[in-house]
Amino acid sequence: MDQVRRKLRADDAHKRGITGRGVTVAVMDTGIILHPDFDHRILDFTDFTQGRTKAYDDNGHGCHVAGIIAGSGKISRGTYMGMAPECSLFVMKVLDRKGNGNTAQVLRAIDFVIENREKYNIRILNISVGMLPSADEAEKKNLMDAVKKAWNHGIVVVAAAGNNGPDKNSVTIPGQCKSIITVGSIDDYVKSKRGLKNGYSGRGPTESCVVKPEILAPGTAIKSCSARGGYEIKSGTSMSAPIISGAIALLLQKYPNMTPAQVKLRLYERAVVLGEAGEQKYWGVVYLNRLL
């Protein structure tokens, strides 16, 4: 895992001026705070749960996810810098303080991203939330259709595989959508005190025999921005997905004309297959220098 983490460090890219500047990532989660590490790069905050207008995160999950993508590391003097420290954020709060939400709010949020994609140059939608297996079948279909619609409108959708592994077909919705990029955790067998079982990362194949998740990234004991200020550690595929969203922000700064399909093909062609990935037929892991 140390090798993967070293290869994912973005220091070389940042030194070359590849920092995600000019690229906006939409984050659909529990919200965000005006953490110093986000500078003035939160372009919009919309609360679909309570309709509040000022940025807040009463859970902490969303702020942590946003920090993995876009934190500048300002208050840690660069130690806990995100993948794309100069990209912009378009934040939608769709989950409450307990991390719960409803499908209608999520669907509205996705439509909102599509409507504002050109105004804010939204190139990526990070979804570190998943629908429970017990959810209504119609709701599942609606969410899958919505992320596919965003993808077809030129937005690279990145979703977490969920933490219901290690059984087969345990990837959560919308991560099962064939079109989008689904991310699992490569270090889900590393012992964690965060209440997650060994092998927590959702696994495929899906019911339609599609390989999911395609890409793996570290997800255990990731340190990022806290909604209380400073930093905290969280674990799960929710942390793996924004690592890849941030990597794609760097890629799209360098190659701004890439379509979602071209981004996905690039990930496939440049993925590095390690033992952990090969056993499950995943594409592999991302090494940034190779991707860029």
Features:
292 residues; alpha/beta; Rossmann fold; eight-stranded parallel sheet; two-stranded antiparallel ribbon; 9 helices; 10 strands; 32% helix; 16% strand
In short:
By secondary structure, the chain is α/β, with parallel strands linked by helices. It is 32% helix and 16% strand. It has a single domain, classed as Rossmann fold, CATH 3.40.50.
CATH-defined topology:
Rossmann fold
Which architecture name does CATH use? Answer: 3-Layer(aba) Sandwich
Helix count?
A: 9
CATH homologous superfamily placement: Peptidase S8/S53 domain
- Outline type: globular
CATH class category? Alpha Beta
Instruction: Return the domain count.
Output: 1
Which sheet architecture does the biggest sheet show? 8 strands, parallel
Query: Which bin fits the share of residues in helices?
Result: 25-40%
Task: Write down the overall mean pLDDT.
Answer: 93
Q: Mind telling me the C-alpha Rg?
A: 17 Å
Helix and strand content put the structural class at alpha/beta
Query: How large a portion of the residues is in β-strands, by DSSP E?
Result: 15-25%
